[in-house]
Amino acid sequence: MSAASARTQASTKPAPSPALPTAEQHGIKEHSDGRFGYVPVQTRSARFKSVNAADFAAVTGREAVWKYSPVARFTDLTAGELDGSTYEYTVTDAPGVTVDWVGRDDARIGTAGLPEERASANAWTTFERALAITVTGEDEKEITLSRANLGSAPRAAHTIIEARPFSHATVILQNNGDARLSENVEIILGDSANLTVITVQEWNADAVQLASHFATIGRDARLKHIVVSLGGSIVRVNPAVHLAGPGSDTELLGLYFADAGQHLEQQVYVDHIAPHTRSRVTYKGALQGAGARTVWIGDVLIGPGASGTDSYEQNRNLVLSEGTRADSVPNLEIETGDILGAGHASATGRFDDEQLFYLQSRGITEDEARRLVVRGFLSEVVQKIGSRPLEDRLHAAIEAELAVTEVR
To answer: For residue 377, what is the DSSP state?
Structure first.
């Protein structure tokens, strides 16, 4: 067997791990009156992982990872056959950045993370070639990779973004048009790399996207990961970031605006593994229209070896009309007492009356005052993106949303 074949088997077809921890873990024992032998998963990192869709049970919607999702509307992505062939894309040029299709035997595949649910595993099982974006060079650079012709048939995709040691870049993944897509994105940062990854979802109204992003960050490297979800019927982008190198740092930002009937979901996982790591998570969204639904779940795990961790996560939702629903679930696990700080916050509500009164007292109409509050609320995330053309375009997109929104 060649070395490449061995790597392929190790990275894409690992032996399935136990779906549940043993009874000896954490000193937990089964109930004496039940004798069922069931011990629930005790920590976020212990979830079952596999690259094979057949290793996962059929999705029912009762699972922890699916209980907030309209699973009946995308069974073709969780249980059906997917088209894993290559697709059309356009990309801007930048020195030190290459974009190529690579085979499933590429050594990088499987190094950033593995699927924890069936849709992700189905895409992993099916994709034929991965699109690899490789960044080198210490000079700051920016590229935009756009997809707009994925079609309406169920499709799988796999993307690798590798930032070599000491490299510095911004990678924008722009999504438009029709899609029924399940995909995995692996983000790999070498030591002292500085990478910003921005994924922008401006799909057509009927599009469905289920995306799992996996990232591993090396020593003293920094990842800024930004999710912007504006278009599509169902959009679910779940980033999982592993702070594997000492001194590694991540900032996870999210911006979403849900209209009537839209389901926008993000399940965020930050895994502090190495010592002296730092993470900041800020997701903000607005909802308007009957049936608008957003879901944010934030899991932070500070492992036993992550001494000196500094972590904070927050989610804020602004409700603009009746008939909307925002679910916000922050979770924090700490397995060491030697940390700098850790915390989380979540809030969902209507307008602040004092803000509105202040603006109206200066001659601004109530309608415009409400729109100013929404702009300011969402602009906090937009202004942290770091790409001026994209920031301007997102400000314009927010203005377009507000132009057709009855803010009450």
So the answer is: H
Predicted TM-score of the model (pTM): 0.89
Note whether 237 and 201 are within 8 A (CB): yes
Where exactly are the structural domains of the chain? 3-32+48-350
Q: Nearest-5° angle of CA 27, CA 33, CA 35?
A: 65
Q: Is residue 17 over pLDDT 50?
A: no
**What confidence category does residue 10 fall into, taking pLDDT thresholds of 50, 70 and 90?**
very low
Angle, CA of 128, 130 and 132, to the nearest 5°: 165
* Beta pairing partners, 47: none
Inter-CA distances, 377 with 374, 398, 406, Å: 5, 11, 17
Task: Encode pLDDT of 45-69 as tens digits.
Answer: 999 999 999 999 999 999 999 999 9
Beta strands in 50-165 (DSSP E): 90-91, 97-102, 130-135, 141-147, 154-163
In the block, tokens 């007492």 appear at 337
Question: In whole angstroms, what is the distance from residue 241 CA to residue 299 CA?
Answer: 10
* Residues sharing a CB contact under 8 Å with residue 348, sequence separation 6 or more, in sequence order: 316, 317, 319, 326, 328
User: Which residue bears the tokens 């801007």?
Assistant: 92
Q: What is the CA radius of gyration of the chain?
A: 21
Alpha carbon distance 198, 131 (integer Å)? 16
Amino acid occupying residue 153: A
